[in-house]
Structure to design on (356 residues):
């Protein structure tokens, strides 16, 4: 599809952050955004890259009332030779359309998704930070913009992409986080939207997250919504537990997100000689195995979170330290290997990296 590139007036050009250690996560946005509209009877029309700025939305539009919205997260990396790489962007495009199907939104053709992302990143390449642990976070989003108060799928959508130079998702950087196992609220139920990347899942997680923060924890680990027994995910990341040379993670059965990083970790861990079990594990077993030392380390995986070590888990007021409470050997190896491939320091034998 032809993408129009609108002029960027000088007054809309922002100053870049000179200290990349202060980027944080998702607080700064680049100069331009990609936008294309879908209209019933017409399909996708008027793809353009325009100056970053607010939308003028009708106060009645569907996304503001019924949350018909989906999004993705991926990253662009600046390599030492100056080139720019994306990591497995086609997986994000496919997951986006899986979410779209669940939310009754139109499919974004994979080529359009990838073209919008690539052309925008190419134009904004100067914004890609280079300090270790930094990258350009890419947020493709679709919102329902028809102005009507009836509960129904919209007849008008915006698919847009914004970019944010980022550092680590957690303020502590690559350091162990403390996670509280949530036993009161649930994130997803069988048949619900847990597998879709939609804003409502995150809105409904806020209360538990705030309560966990008040108790000194970084995030919550969700249990299954039916029996409140089986470990699921952490919202911003999928969870892994290491038992010596075996790694365990929750299976993809419809209520957790199918993480691109999760999938990459499974491949890398197997390459490193670990057995990976995608199996249902109940929280009592996890806590007992942490206590007895059978679980040697735990970590989360996600685009924003990359690989995040988990130092302690709290369930029903018992806090158990995992391993030494520090960064486990496999966690460190996976972090180094994954970020090495993403930044071109380690050869990519999987064909994951896409130069743009
Ligand atoms: C991502 O990892 O890209 C996500 O979308 C998680 C988000 C909560 C920051």
């Amino acid at each position: 599809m032809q993408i129009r590139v609108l002029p960027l007036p000088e007054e809309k050009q922002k100053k870049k952050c000179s200290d990349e250690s202060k980027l944080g996560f998702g607080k700064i946005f680049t100069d331009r955004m990609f936008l294309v509209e879908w209209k019933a009877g017409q399909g996708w029309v008027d793809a353009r890259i325009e100056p970053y700025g607010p939308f003028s939305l009708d106060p009645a539009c569907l996304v503001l009332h019924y949350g018909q919205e989906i999004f993705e997260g991926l990253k662009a990396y600046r390599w030492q030779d100056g080139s720019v790489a994306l990591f497995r962007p086609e997986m994000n495009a496919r997951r986006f359309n899986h979410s779209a199907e669940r939310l009754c939104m139109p499919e974004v053709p994979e080529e359009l998704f990838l073209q919008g992302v690539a052309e925008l990143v190419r134009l904004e390449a100067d914004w890609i930070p280079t300090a270790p642990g930094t990258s350009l976070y890419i947020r493709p989003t679709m919102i329902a913009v028809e102005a009507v108060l009836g509960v129904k799928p919209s007849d008008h959508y915006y698919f847009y992409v914004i970019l944010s130079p980022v550092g680590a998702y957690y303020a502590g950087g690559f350091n162990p986080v403390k996670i509280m196992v949530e036993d009161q609220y649930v994130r997803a139920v069988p048949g619900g939207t847990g597998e879709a990347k939609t804003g409502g899942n995150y809105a409904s997680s806020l209360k538990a997250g705030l309560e966990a923060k008040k108790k000194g924890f970084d995030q919550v680990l969700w249990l299954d919504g039916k029996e409140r027994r089986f470990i699921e995910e952490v919202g911003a990341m999928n969870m892994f537990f290491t038992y010596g040379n075996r790694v365990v993670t929750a299976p993809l059965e419809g209520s957790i997100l199918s993480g691109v990083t999760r999938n990459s970790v499974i491949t890398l861990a197997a390459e490193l000689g670990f057995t990976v079990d995608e199996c249902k594990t109940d929280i009592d077993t996890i806590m007992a195995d942490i206590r007895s030392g059978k679980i040697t380390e735990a970590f989360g995986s996600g685009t924003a979170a990359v690989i995040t070590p988990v130092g302690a888990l709290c369930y029903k007021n018992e806090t158990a330290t995992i391993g030494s409470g520090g960064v486990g050997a496999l966690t460190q190896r996976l972090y180094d290997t994954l970020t090495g491939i993403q930044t071109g320091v380690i050869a990519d034998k999987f064909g994951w990296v896409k130069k743009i």
Summary: The chain has eight helices and 17 strands. Residues 177-343 form a domain with the D-amino Acid Aminotransferase; Chain A, domain 2 fold (CATH 3.20.10.10).
